[in-house]
Amino acid sequence: MGRNIGPKSAWSGKARIMAETKEYLFFTLPAFLIFTLIILIPFLIGIYYSFTEWNGITKDALWIGVRNYVDLVTKDESMGNAFVFTAKFTFMVLLLSNALGLALALCLTLPLKTANPLRIVFFIPNVIGGLILGFIWRFIYNQAFPAIGKLTGLSFFLLPWLGTPETGFWGLVIVYVWRTAGYLMIIYIAALVSVDESLLEAAKIDGASPIRIFTRIVVPLIVPAFTVCVFLMLSWAFKIFDVVYSLTNGDPYRSTESLALNIYNEAFIYNNYGLASAKAVIFFLFVGLITLVQVSLTKSREVEL
Amino acid sequence: MSKRYSPALFIIETLVLVMGLLFLLPFFMILMNSVKPISDIVRNAAEFPKSFQWNNYVLAVREIKMETAFLNSLLITVASIVGMVVLGAMAAWKMARVKTPLSRIMFFLYVAAMVIPFQALMIPLVKVAVVLDIINSRSGLIFIYVGFGLPFTIFLYHGFVKGLPRELEESAMIDGCTQVRIFSMIVFPLLKTITTTVIILQTLWIWNDFLLPALILYKREYHTIPLSINRFFGQYLYQWDKALAALVLSTLPVILFFLALQKNIVKSIAAGALKG
User: Fold this and answer.
1) ipTM of the complex
2) B119 to chain A, closest Cα gap in Å
3) What's the pLDDT band for B273 if we cut at 50, 70, 90?
C-alpha cells in the first residue's frame, strides 16, 4: 500500500510501478468485482438462457438454439400485445406529462404567492414508490371515484374505471402523469430560471408580444431541458412495472400488460425461463436503441473516452 | 421581482391552486377513509368520517408487522448506500486520476451497464444469488444493491472528480501521505456535494424498490415495507379499513424524508436528471 512513500525520486522504477498498481487495484477492484458478479455475469447468462428451454425446476437448461426467438415471432402473441400497449402508453404519457410539467413550470416561475409550497405539492407523488401508488389509486378508482360520481353527478367518475381495456389504459396514464409531471416540472423550472431576464426585457421594450417572446426566446433556450424530459419519460414509461403490477396487474384480459410485466409473468408465473430470457434480450435491445438515439442527439458531454 | 400582482396573476394562481388540490386529493381520500369503519368506506368514500376508528392503525401495524418492515427497509437502505458510496467513490477517484486503458474500459462498462433494464438481469440474478448463497438474506440483498447502484454512483463521482484540482493530492503525496489517507482525509470530504446527491437519489430508489427484494427475500421476517404491503394486498384485498391505514403508514416515512430535505432533493434530482 505504499506506506510512507517519501519523495518520488527515491523510488526505483519497477518498485514504484508495482506499488502504484497495487494501490490502483485496491481502490478499483472491489467495486468492479461486485459489479461483475451482479451485473456483467447475469447479463451474459441471460443471453445464454435465451437460447435454452428451462422451467426452473429441472437442474439444467436445454439448448434449443434460436427457437425461442422464432416462437416469439410466430407463436407468442402476448409480447406483441404488451409492446403495443407499452408503446401507446409511453406516447401518451410522454405527451401529457411534458405538457403538464412545462405548464406548471411556466406558472410557478411567475411571481405567485403560493409558488413554493405548490412546487412541493406537485413533486410529492414522485417520492412515493410505484407499488404503493398503484395500491393507493386502486382505492381511488374502485371506491373514491364512484362516491365522487354519486356526489357530483359527473359521468367521468362513474365510468367502469379499470374494468375495461380503455379505462385500464387511461387509469394508468392518469396515475403516471400525476406521478411524473412534478419531476419534469422541476427540470423545466431549473431551465426557465436560467433564462436571462435582460433578453426578455429587451424584447418587451422592442414591443414583442408575450406569445412571440415565449416561442422565439424562451422555447429555444429550454430545448436542452426539453430533450432531457422527453428521453426521461421515454425510458421510464417504456420500462414501467411497479405501478402496473399493483394497479391493474395487466387486467382486464392482459390488456394493460406492459413489456416489463410480460417478461415477469412469463418467467415467474408461467415458469418459461428460456422464453422470458429471449423477451428480456429483445427488451434490452429496445431500451438500448432509445438510449443510442438519445446519446447521438445530445452528444453526451459526460462520457470522455 | 418588481412586477405588480395583476388580476391575470390572480387567475393563474387560482387555477394552479385548484390543480394542486386535485394533486393532493388521492392522499386526502386515503387519509380520510383510513379512520372509518369498513362499512362506511364502502357505502360512501366521499363522506367525512362520522366516527374515528383509530383501531384500523393498530390492526394495520400488527398485520404488516410495520416495525419489522420499517427496520428492514432502513437497514437495507442505509447499508447498501454506505457500501456503494465508499466503493464507488474509491473506484471513481482512481479511475479519473489514473488514465490508463484499463480505467477507460471499466468506466465504459459501468456507463454501458446503466442501459441494461432490470428485467434483462432478474432471471439469471436469482440463479447467481443461489450459487453465491446470498438468497433470502438481508446482507445478500445489500450486496446485490451495491452492485446495481455502483454504475450510476461511479458515473456521478467520476464526473465530479474530474472537476477537482489535483494540487492538494499531489502535495500530500510529496509529504508522504498514503493513498488511503489522501482519499479519506482530503478527497472524500471534497466530494460532499456529489455524495449528498448520490445518497438522496439512491435512497429514494432503494427505499421504494419492490421487484428486486421480492425476488431475493421470501422469508417474512426480512420483508421491507413494499414487500409487506404487497403481501397484505395479496391476502386481504378490499379490506380497505386496514389497507388504507397501512398505506398511510408506509408513505409517511418517505414523505417526512422529502419534506425535511426537500431543497437538497430537488437540487439533486435536477442535477441527476441532467446527467443520467
Assistant:
1) 0.90
2) 6
3) low
Do B51 and B180 lie in a common domain? Answer: no
B70 and B52 in a single domain? The answer is no
C-alpha cell at A254: 392482459
Whether residue A6 has pLDDT greater than 60: no
pTM of the predicted model as reported, rounded to 2 decimal places: 0.89
State how far the Cα of B245 lies from the Cα of B250, in Å rounded to an integer.
9
- Residue B204 inside a domain? The answer is yes
In this prediction, residue A303 has a pLDDT band, given cuts at 50, 70 and 90, of very low
Are residues B41 and B81 located together in one domain of the fold?
A: no
Q: How far is A27 from chain B (nearest CA, A)?
A: 5
Superfamily holding A78-294: MetI-like (1.10.3720.10)
Peptide bond between residue A160 and the one before it cis (omega within 30 degrees of 0): no
CA–CA gap between residue B144 and residue B121 (Å, rounded): 12
Same domain, B70 and B174: yes
Residue B265 lies in a domain: no
Q: Name the pLDDT band for B5 (thresholds 50, 70, 90).
A: confident
What CA–CA distances, in Å, run from B193 to A216, B88, B189, B216? Answer: 36, 15, 9, 33
Q: Beta-carbon neighbour count of residue A250 at 10 Å?
A: 22
Q: Which residues pair with A53 in a beta bridge?
A: A62
Indicate whether B184 and B200 sit together in one domain: yes
Integer-rounded Cα Rg, in Å, for chain B is 24
Whether residue B154 contacts residue B107, with contact meaning beta carbons closer than 8 Å, is answered with yes
Q: How far apart, in whole angstroms, are the C-alpha atoms of residue A235 and residue A130?
A: 15
In a domain, B141, yes or no: yes
Residue A82, number of CB atoms within 10 A of its CB: 26
For residues B161 and B31, membership in a common domain is answered with: no
For cell 448520490, what's the residue? B198
What residues of chain B, 15 to 44, have a C-beta less than 8 Å from chain A?
15-17, 19-20, 23-24, 26-27, 29-30, 33, 41-42, 44
Which DSSP string corresponds to B221-240? GG--HHHHHHHHHHHSTT-H
Q: Which residues of B touch A30 (CB under 8 A)?
A: 87, 90-91
C-alpha A116/C-alpha A114 separation (Å) is 6
C-alpha cell at B221: 421476517
B91-105 pLDDT tens trace: 999 999 999 999 999
Please say if the pLDDT value at position B269 is more than 50: yes
Of residues A12, A5, A11, the one with CA closest to residue B176:
A5
> Which residue among B58, B82, B98 closes a domain?
B58
Going by pLDDT thresholds of 50, 70 and 90, the confidence category of residue A1 is: very low
